[in-house]
Amino acid sequence: MSPFPRADYRALTRYDPGRAPVHLDLSDNTNLWGPHPAALERIRAATADDLARYPELYADVLRCAVADRFGVDPDCVTTGAGSDDILDSAYRAACGPGGTTMYAAPTFSMVVPFALMNGMAARAVPWAEALADPEALLVGEPDLVYVCRPNNPTGALAPADWLDRLVALRGDAGPLIVIDEAYADFAGETLLPRAPSISRFLVVRTASKAYGLAGLRCGFAVGAREVALEIEKSRGPYKVSGLAAAATAAAVRDESGWMGRAVESCLANRIRLHDELVARGADPLESHANFILFAAPTGDARADADALRAAGIGVRPFTDVPGIGQGLRVTVGPWKSMEAFLCALDDTFGRAPAAPRP
After folding, report:
1. What is the pLDDT of residue 1?
2. How close are the terminal C-alpha atoms of the chain, in Å?
3. pTM of the full predicted structure?
């Protein structure tokens, strides 16, 4: 008799993005300008108590920093060990085993595993269909609706008025609507300040992207007080280390403006890289994030990613992407790293146009 009786877990595998060590890794959308200096300064100033004592129960130092930065009440803020932790807790809080989550696809790869981990079914709606009619995400009355904005891996940005329509369709009686804003700093707009005033609405952020703190595993989210409380209850205490919370709080306050300058540099290089890919016939999608998804040069994304990895450059392959079919996602970074990527792309595949869209 197996000590692990859950049949729904048999569909799960351990997460493996195939990210073997490589000279220049452009596969994970982290901040290639490095960590926020204020966070690094806080970590370097660590005391014995930072390590020897338990952290705050619910990372109040970070909750207050988020509240100050975005003009919300601290009671409307929740935190977690990365935005993944908050998403996982939101699934548990929204419904019990046997519930359903709906999501616009393609999107963040952990959406389905989080559903399975929590005994839920996950149903995908094609991105274009969902944007044409938000009602498509509510068919069957799901318990949770997930939307990534900007979307990963495509970089698409669901319009704000589309979200207003989605929220209005069911009102207070609707599902928990989770907006994943991991890349919102690169889009120049956020729903965080509005979140507390919308029932059954949660906007989730991570410190791993614009703030350059992926190694700390820290995230935060904003919603109405009752929503934040339910997430806190689902997640449990002591999930965010004291140093991670304090360092992330310093980064979120961004008193030096470092994060804003890093984002500006990223956006300038995103435009430049997009143009370079167009010149190579790579058919890049318009992106509102810190990455670009473009057509795989030979039409075989996995083989093309392996070929670039052999040349020392890590990118992320994707299959069956609407509009381009097989694609490669590349993180935008300082131009020197983009030049290295483009040289490897040219050396590996030449300057011939990429495979045409299907």
Report:
1. 61
2. 49
3. 0.93
Helices (H), 37-136: 37-44, 48-52, 60-70, 83-94, 111-117, 127-132
Read off the tokens for 228.
């934040």
Amino acid (one-letter) located at 231: I
pLDDT at 318 (0 to 100): 95
Residue in the block written with tokens 């319009």? 159
Cα–Cα dist 346/63, whole Å:
46
Low-confidence ranges of the chain (pLDDT < 70): 1-2, 351-358
Which residues of the chain does CATH 3.40.640.10 include? 37-253
Nearest CA-CA partner of 331 in 347, 344, 315? 315
Residue with tokens 């996602």: 329
Instruction: Specify the pLDDT at position 172.
Output: 84
> What is the phi/psi pair of residue 178, to 5°?
-105, 120
**Beta carbons of 309 and 293 less than 8 angstroms apart:** no
Amino acid making up residue 144 = L
- Spatial separation of the C-alpha atoms in residues 331 and 343, rounded to whole Å: 15
Helix axes 301-310, 335-349, angle to 10 degrees: 110
**CATH number for the 7-30+258-349 domain, one of 3.30.70.1560, 3.40.50.150, 2.60.20.10, 3.90.1150.10?**
3.90.1150.10
Nearest-10 crossing angle of helices 242-253, 37-44: 140
Tokens encoding 80 = 């977690």
Q: Is the CB of residue 240 less than 8 Å from the CB of residue 227?
A: no
Q: Tell me the backbone φ, ψ of residue 32, rounded to 5 degrees.
A: -80, 0
Report the C-alpha gap between 221 and 83 in whole angstroms. 8
How much is the pLDDT for 351? 66
Helices 225-235 and 83-94, axial angle in degrees (round to 10): 100
H helices of the chain, in order, are: 37-44, 48-52, 60-70, 83-94, 111-117, 127-132, 160-170, 225-235, 242-253, 258-279, 301-310, 335-349
